[in-house]
UniProtKB/TrEMBL annotation:
GO biological process terms, semicolon-separated: L-histidine biosynthetic process
Record's GO cellular component terms: cytoplasm
Full protein name: ATP phosphoribosyltransferase
Localization per Swiss-Prot or TrEMBL: Cytoplasm
Species annotation: Pontibacter lucknowensis
Domain Histidine biosynthesis HisG C-terminal: 208-280
Keyword Amino-acid biosynthesis: yes
Cofactor(s) the record lists: Mg(2+)
Regulation: Feedback inhibited by histidine.
Length: 283
């Protein structure tokens, strides 16, 4: 049995549970429960505050966990990281009241900065050679300048709308973050094997998220040219259509590449192009 710690309720919770479900792992959730056991995979889920997750994994109370890199690195636990999961993307940024003159980081020399991430902020300031007073507060950082507690703040930003609504302007990006899978370094063989199985499934899910299945019709004399445009997992599958001289080509494309090749496919004579999502992808 492997124990996974995830955030009980917050910005990581939903996507963490979604990833586990997409891996085909079933469990019953209840907002009142502190832990649940999967009904079809040797996994137990603990629901914790995100800040506590790295510590619990380091101590072995949980074997693995999902947490933001911002919290992991702030707590000096980056050695636990196994891999980035691609969700809960955000950044830690410095912001100043929007009317304040600000040209570069040297403007923060000697200023008061409020943050919940003193370590990440300190290393950024050290790197830039700036000395400032860091006020560590645990929440509502964005109101610190308006109540006179600080000249600037360093806080998590995703769209930036919270900053704007508090009359602040983002001026420096201190740290880029996303959710990361972490693991205790001393897992026994049984637990390591379960983790490997879980990672295999996570990779299949992640690969599928970027990949799209593409189907198109093409005249037979254009198959070679179109196949060149479709890198695919291997070469495209080619099936004859009922209409003489035409075939259907099936392949896999990366979503990012798709928009680039679509015009070329049409120019090469492709018709009836369908692009459909892939649920799992094993290579
Ligand atoms: P807890 O009660 O568990 O301590 P919290 O209030 O500290 O929760 P949340 O606000 O739920 O934490 O954020 C959890 C993590 O989600 C953050 O550490 C960060 O990695 C990520 N995150 C925070 N804000 C955003 C955002 N606006 N968009 C995307 N991800 C975010
Ligand atoms: Zn927290």
């Amino acid at each position: 049995m492997l124990r996974l710690a995830i955030q009980k309720s917050g910005r990581l919770s939903e996507d963490s549970l979604k990833l586990i479900r997409e891996c085909g792992i079933s469990f019953i959730t209840s907002s009142l429960k502190l832990k649940t056991e999967s009904t079809n995979f040797p996994l137990e889920i603990l629901y914790l505050r995100d800040d506590d997750i790295p510590g619990y994994v380091a101590d072995g109370v949980a074997d693995i966990g999902i947490v933001g890199e911002n919290v992991l690195v702030e707590e000096g636990m980056q050695h636990l990281a196994v891999e980035q999961l691609g969700f809960s993307k955000c950044r830690l940024s410095l912001a100043v009241p929007k009317g304040d003159p600000y040209e570069d980081i040297s403007d923060l020399q000697g200023k008061n900065i409020a943050t919940s991430y003193p370590n990440l902020l300190q290393s950024y300031l050290d790197e830039k050679g700036v000395q400032a007073h860091i006020h560590t507060i645990s929440g509502s950082v964005e109101i610190a300048p308006s109540i006179g507690l600080a000249d600037a703040i360093c806080d998590i930003v995703s769209s930036g709308s919270t900053l704007i609504s508090n009359g602040l302007r983002e001026v420096e990006r201190v740290f880029k973050s996303q959710a990361v899978l972490i693991a205790n370094g001393g897992l026994n063989a049984e637990k390591q094997e379960i983790l490997n199985k879980l990672l295999f499934r996570i990779h299949a899910v992640q690969r599928a998220q970027k990949a799209k299945y593409i189907l198109l019709n093409a005249p037979n004399d254009k198959i070679a040219e179109i196949s060149e445009l479709l890198p695919g997992a291997k070469s495209p599958s080619i099936l004859p259509l009922a209409e003489e001289g035409w075939s259907s080509l099936h392949s896999v494309v990366n979503e990012d590449d798709f928009w680039e090749i679509i015009e070329k496919l049409k120019d090469a004579g492709a018709q009836g192009i369908l692009v459909v999502p892939i649920e799992k992808m094993i290579v």
